[in-house]
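Q: Sequence in, structure out?
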Amino acid sequence: MTADVPTHLDGNAAAGKLREIFAVDLTAAIARCAGCGQTGVFAETRLYVDAPGMVARCASCDQVLLRVVTTPDDTYLDLRGLTYLKVPNA
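A: Exactly. Output:
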């Protein structure tokens, strides 16, 4: 009988890759709206900064795509309005 070998790692294993991804200019990334399916360059979204944080909305259907809120201790990133964010490799 063989020992159970885990088939997954914990989230710490993603640290290097995530650092690579978020070290680039995300405004050039291709984003797809989870609401209407519109796909385009993230720079073409409508950005609102008059709230406690930053909100990006779909230029087509106005759905919230991304929220970023920074507190003194943490930064919250909500991407649930996107089905994907395609970041070009350097």
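The chain has one domain: 12-86.
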